[in-house]
Predict the 3D structure of the following.
Amino acid sequence: MLIQIKDPDWDYCSPHFKFKEVYQFSFADIKNPSEQDLAHAVTDDQAKALADCLMRAKEHKMNVIVHCVVGRCRSGAVVEAAVGLGFDDPLKKRNPNQLVLEKIKKYLTE
């Protein structure tokens, strides 16, 4: 499974390999949204969809690759949530976006 995250004004990268499932999300790396930033922050629907992807991958014993431009904050939040579900921790150096992580975790516990 490939999970791609991009900024709202950017295009998705084309993967070099074929993936069984590809999920794409577009939101900015906003950590503490102000009123003007809310339009670009991760939405509850996106967080729920990300949580659903992780739970589906776990249920079907799928490997997951998370890709975003820098690969530390937004993708770090998804990886952090996945590790909380029991996925292997591939890299311990990340700075997860806490807003994204908390929203995903909210839907992992439902």
The chain has a mean pLDDT of 89. The chain is about 35% helix and 10% strand.
